[in-house]
Each structure stands twice: as structure tokens, then as C-alpha cells.
Design brief:
alpha/beta, 6-stranded parallel sheet, 5-stranded parallel sheet, 19% strand
Length: 284
């Protein structure tokens, strides 16, 4: 299929859908403020018996993500549960007690190892790296870390990426994330473990939580993913075997200008395999 279906609202797509797995950043907020219509759409779906699990590449545990959502004005009633790449990264740290961790990321992400008794160390003494982001994502890019990554590769350190996103929106700007550094390290020949979308573990965890809330094992044919990234949301949903509603106002907004005039070849170039439907911004 190379044609594109443009939906007017979520209501068109949730008949027979038991579970929605929704991205957060770019779908329900932009890093500075919430999107009320998106929140209301998810709440309406829940009020009709559906389960909403927010899945995010945030390099923080779910409780920290929830606190941020509240500050941005996203009501708790918008969703049933949150699964973050930070949760999965914390599990990795917990499963490697006594090994020395070099943490690369801003101070705001310190919850990545909170309560885990993690042994932190300089790069020269570490056994592995946990990357939650850039030290200063307002001014830096991954290239600022090339020297550091070369040193890490020489020591054959594994880099655990707590956020596979390359960029995210912050207001009207795009800022670099841990995924940009992880991809650079991989290009240099380093070993990388990715937690979060598009990788399978975060979807398996989300499906487990959804099953607990619905009281039965969820059929993937009755699941709809929502996201704004081809690389993480669309690819992750496709590889996990679930449909995807793609939000075009997010990080790819400029690329999708005039999307309704695209020919089949251009559709394939943009998406590979097109999503189930597209919508400019999530609403009911």
C-alpha cells in the first residue's frame, strides 16, 4: 500500500481497538506546554473503555515523567500508565551490581540511577556507559562528543542508550538527544544497547501493563500506536506488528508540507511502509 489516509480524528480509528500506545513528546506536549485537544482525545477514548499506555523515550523513570506531565498541564486522566526507556535502563543498571558506570547526561536526568546504589566512575575507570543525553542540549551536538566516544571505543565500553531519539521538539526548536551520541558511537565501531522505541522491550512492557488493566492478553490487531517519528514510532510499531497513527505536526513537520499531494514513490521514500493513517495533530 502506498496511498495515504488522512484522519480527521482519533474517533475514526479506534473501533475495535482495545489499547492505544501513545508517544508523549510531540503528541501530547512539545516540551513547554501540553496539547489540550490531544489530552482530551485520549481521555475520551479511555472513557469509552479503552486503555492508554504512554510509551516514551524519556531517560527517566515513569514517576519522574508523570511529574513533568503534571507541570506541563497533562491531566492524569489522559492515560492509564507510563512506560519509559528510563525504566528499562534502570533495570539494566540494577542487573549489573558492582560494575562501574560512567553516566553521560544532564543533571536533570539523575533519577536514572536514583535508589540503585550504582557505582559511578570517570570514563577512564568505568565498565560501561549510560547515556541519557548531552550535558548541554541547548548548545551542543553529538560531534562535541566524538573525542570522548573514541576514548570509549578504545576501552571497548558498552554504551547503554536511555533515549534512542536523535532529536525532539522543545517549543519551536529541535534539540539533540542521547540517540545522536549513541549513533555516533555505533558509527565509530562501539557497542550500543538501545532501550526505548523502536526496540521491542518497551512495547512488550507496555503490552504487559495493558493486559493487566484489561484483564486479558491483548491481541496486537486490537492495538493502535500513535507517534510523530518515522524512525522510532512508525518503525517500532511496524516491527512489533501493530498499526500506527502518525502525527505530522511533530519533528517532521517541514518534510510533510504538501503531504496530500505526494505520489506513491514519494510516500515510500518518506515512510517505507505508510502508517494506517495520518493526522496533523491528535484530536478526537
Amino acid at each position: 500500500m502506498t496511498t495515504l489516509h488522512f484522519a480527521e480524528g482519533l474517533r475514526e480509528l479506534v473501533g475495535g481497538v482495545d489499547v492505544v500506545l501513545s508517544d508523549i513528546w510531540g503528541v501530547v506536549h512539545n516540551g513547554l506546554e501540553s496539547f489540550p485537544e490531544a489530552c482530551e482525545a485520549l481521555h475520551t477514548y479511555r472513557s469509552r473503555g479503552g486503555t492508554v499506555i504512554l510509551i516514551t523515550n524519556a531517560p527517566r523513570p515513569a514517576d519522574s515523567v508523570q511529574r513533568q506531565l503534571r507541570k506541563l498541564g497533562v491531566p492524569d486522566e489522559t492515560y492509564d500508565a507510563i512506560v519509559s526507556s528510563g525504566d528499562l535502563t534502570r533495570l539494566y543498571v540494577a542487573e549489573h551490581p558492582g560494575r562501574k558506570m560512567f553516566w553521560l547526561g544532564p543533571e536533570r536526568d539523575n533519577s536514572i540511577h536514583r535508589g540503585l546504589d550504582a557505582v559511578t566512575a570517570p570514563l577512564e575507570q568505568a565498565d560501561y556507559i549510560v547515556c541519557t543525553g548531552l550535558y548541554d542540549d541547548e548548545t551542543e551536538t553529538a560531534e562535541d562528543y566524538r573525542g570522548m566516544m573514541l576514548k570509549a571505543r578504545e576501552r571497548k565500553l558498552t554504551l547503554v542508550c536511555a533515549n534512542p531519539d536523535i532529536v525532539v521538539e522543545r517549543g519551536d526548536r529541535l534539540i539533540y538527544c542521547a540517540g545522536a551520541i549513541a549513533e555516533l558511537y555505533r558509527e565509530l565501531g562501539g557497542e550500543v544497547i538501545f532501550y526505548g522505541k523502536p526496540h521491542r522491550p518497551i512495547y512488550e512492557r507496555a503490552m504487559s501493563l495493558a493486559g493487566e488493566r484489561q484483564g486479558y492478553q491483548i491481541d496486537r490487531k486490537k492495538v493502535l500506536a500513535i507517534g510523530d517519528s518515522v524512525r522510532t514510532d512508525l518503525t517500532g510499531a511496524r516491527e512489533f506488528g501493530i498499526d500506527c497513527l502518525f502525527v505530522t505536526r511533530g519533528i517532521h513537520a517541514e518534510e510533510f508540507e504538501g503531504l496530500d499531494q505526494l505520489d506513491p514513490t514519494s510516500v515510500v521514500e518518506l515512510f517505507g511502509h505508510p502508517p494506517k493513517a495520518l493526522i496533523r495533530e491528535l484530536k478526537w
